[in-house]
Amino acid sequence: MKTKITTLLLTFPIIFLASCASNSRPQLYPNEILKQRGQEQAKQDIDLCLKEADDYFKTPEGKEAAKGSPGYGTMVGTSVGFGMGNTGVGIGVGMGGGERGTSPSDVRKAYVNQCLMNKGYQVLSWK
């Protein structure tokens, strides 16, 4: 039990810091749109969506949206905790409960994901 908690406490900061990286980019699922347009066009479309997101979050509406939604941290913490069993749920809620909501980088990713989806792409992950 102690090993699980120690592992979680050591791993969580690494995951958190990695997710905060502002230079992360979406990785696309190889659907028909990506195959038709090719990697170079996809890169240009990703760059355009990233720029659009940055421009949007400079507006008053974008600044308000960047505040995120409350309770997200608790939800994520609870999900992490379920992997540790009954005691882990409590630890997970405690970890996530202190967060005020979705981070601006999460909202930015959601914006970019939607932008790319509107162009026919499917976002697989972010790196």
Describe this structure in words.
It is a single chain. The longest helix is centred in the middle third of the chain and has 25 residues, at 32-56. Helix content is 69%, strand content 6%. It has helices at 2-19, 32-56, 60-65, 72-82, 86-97, 104-118; strands spanning 26-28, 123-126. Strands 1-2 form a two-stranded antiparallel ribbon. The protein has one domain (2-68, 103-126). By secondary structure, the chain is mainly α. It is built from six helices and two strands, in the order H-E-H-H-H-H-H-E. Residues 6-21, 77-82 and 89-98 have low confidence and may be disordered.
* Cα Rg: 17 Å
Which residues sit in consecutive blocks of at least 5 with pLDDT less than 50? 6-21, 77-82, 89-98
- Average pLDDT confidence is 75
Distance between the termini: 31 Å
Strand order of the largest sheet: 1-2
- How would the global form be characterised? elongated
Q: Estimate nothing, just give the exact number of structural domains.
A: 1
How many beta strands in the DSSP annotation? 2
Number of helices: 6
Q: How would a crystallographer describe the biggest sheet? A: 2 strands, antiparallel
Structural class: mainly alpha
What percent of residues are in strands? 5-15%
Write the H/E string, N to C: HEHHHHHE
User: Considering DSSP H and I runs of 4 or more, what fraction of the residues is helical?
Assistant: 55-70%
